[in-house]
């Protein structure tokens, strides 16, 4: 995101009072603007495809489609035949890919980290926050997600990865082959991302400016074809000992 860009946000929650409170908090600093609201998962998917926001604030538990189903709908590629199903000439329908694939998903929940949150994170959501999080914490998470930085703490990251169970031998071999193709510097960054470190913390470890780290993380995401830092952590964890970790 370019400097000075106002982040575009869609809020999805079935409670109008919660949506109003989130809108007030999100727009309080002028850094973000709410472009649409949704009362259920179907409306959330439609709003994301129509407005192409930077971030979707998504309630995990909603009628019609919950947060897990909504995340699946936005992260799964759309069939080629559906590319023209949107309004004629819609620039978002690109080669059959989902128009909302680039939107960062921040889950909101009143129940803490549970199985539904874990499933949505594995499916491609980028972060989660309790609904009663202070405004400063909400804005910090939105900034981090916007900038491609870490949001999940190392403890939460570990809990999510542990919930996935033990990878098969075939999964390990495939992940190891992908990860070992990385140049040494990118492999080192992968290990630090997988440990749950933020860009600032990685920069301190590597004695590199934060902007350089952000660029490195972007290269790792592109080279591994990963959509999020969580997916990088999952790849590194699946590859196991075959990944070159951080030195020292």
Could you characterize the architecture of this molecule?
The protein is α/β, with parallel strands linked by helices. The protein has 2 domains: 7-147, Rossmann fold; 169-242, Arc Repressor Mutant, subunit A, CATH 1.10.10. It has 11 helices and 5 strands. It has helices spanning 16-26, 41-51, 67-75, 115-123, 135-146, 154-162, 169-180, 184-194, 199-206, 210-224, 229-239; strands spanning 7-12, 32-38, 55-59, 104-109, 127-130. A 5-stranded parallel beta sheet has the order 2-1-3-4-5, sandwiched between helices. Helix 1 (16-26) links the parallel strand 1 (7-12) and strand 2. Helix 3 runs parallel beside helix 4 and helix 7 packs across helix 11 (229-239).
Features of the shown structure:
single chain; 248 residues; alpha/beta; Arc Repressor Mutant, subunit A; 2 domains; five-stranded parallel beta sheet; 5 strands; 48% helix
Spell out the blueprint of helices and strands:
Elements: E1 7-12, H1 16-26, E2 32-38, H2 41-51, E3 55-59, H3 67-75, E4 104-109, H4 115-123, E5 127-130, H5 135-146, H6 154-162, H7 169-180, H8 184-194, H9 199-206, H10 210-224, H11 229-239
Parallel strand pairs: 1-2, 1-3, 3-4, 4-5
Helix pairs in contact: 2-3, 3-4, 7-11, 8-10, 8-11, 9-10
